[in-house]
Amino acid sequence: MDVVQRVLGAQLLVAVAGAGAVWVFLGKAASVAVAYGCICALANAALLFVRMRSDWRRQGDDARRHLRFFFRSSFERFAVVVSLLVVGLVGLGFSPLHVIAGFVAGQAVFLAASIGIHERE
Hints:
The protein is mainly alpha-helical and about 120 residues long. Helices cover about 85% and strands about 0% of the residues.
């Protein structure tokens, strides 16, 4: 199991566990909103890993190209996350508190899993 699978698997596990816990205490609507927020964070991490694997090695030694790639990739991830959150909050009518809580939980797992995995290597 490589780093990508571990990190995304941990995020998916938190999405399922968090949605289940919220379902028990707050009901189905809040549970779906939390799961959606976690999936937004998972999409952000997945896009980061895809961009790292596909384009990073092709950039060569040119610092300007690396910087352009970094900015473009960051903007793409930002646009995807904002679009997904807007769809969830406005289009699907999910509770903002629960969507953002799920997103923050997913991002926290991404950071913790990434740090933990890199320290073990």
